[in-house]
Amino acid sequence: MNLLENKRLKNTFAKALILICGVILIDFVAPKEEVETIVVDKTRVLENKQSVARNYYYAYYITTEEAVVPVSESFQKKSIAGDAVKITFSPIFNEVHRVTAVQRQESEIYSQRIFSGCILPLLGIGILGLGFRKGARVNTLVFATEVVLIINFIYLLY
């Protein structure tokens, strides 16, 4: 494979990733499917971070008739079994986007959803676009961005 074919392959791959970023952004902003359901249970799970400091944190979930939904600590503590909640799911990847407690009119957007559905794709489009303009000077940055975007896409698929 000569140098010109290699550059074309890189550009095609970057364009495909920009298209995937666009699909992820559309999924984030498109009208959502809303489901009203009942809280069945609440759970606090100890999550371990494998690091030198051996840190840990708690993850909070509410279990409904439809799904297990990650929520903030305050939202989970205010929820009780039998509460009605509205859950909005993204149309393409079926990710939880927003949870609303109907009686309290309290709502929250899942923060990881904001990061994986909005911030990462916008950064990806910007950095890949920069790669087209600057060429070989930003190859490492473009490669790292491509890896992160592929991992994010796989995460959204599963």
Please count the beta strands (DSSP E, at least 2 residues each): 6
Number of domains: 2
Report the helical percentage.
40-55%
Report the mean per-residue pLDDT as an integer: 89
| Strands in their spatial order, largest beta sheet | 3-2-1-4-5-6
What structural class do helix, strand and pairing data support?
A: alpha+beta
End-to-end span in angstroms?
34 Å
Order of helices and strands: HEEEHEEEHH
Radius of gyration: 20 Å
Task: Tell me about this structure.
- The protein is α+β, with helices and mostly antiparallel strands.
- The chain has 2 domains: 3-29 and 115-157; 33-109, OB fold (Dihydrolipoamide Acetyltransferase, E2P), CATH 2.40.50.
- Helix content is 48%, strand content 28%.
- The chain contains 4 helices and 6 strands; from the N terminus they run H-E-E-E-H-E-E-E-H-H.
- It has helices spanning 3-29, 73-78, 111-134, 139-157, and strands at residues 33-48, 56-64, 68-71, 84-89, 96-101, 106-109.
- The chain has a 6-stranded antiparallel β-sheet.
- Strand 5 and strand 6 (106-109) form a beta hairpin.
- Helix 1 runs antiparallel to helix 3 (111-134), helix 1 packs across helix 4 and helix 3 (111-134) packs antiparallel against helix 4.
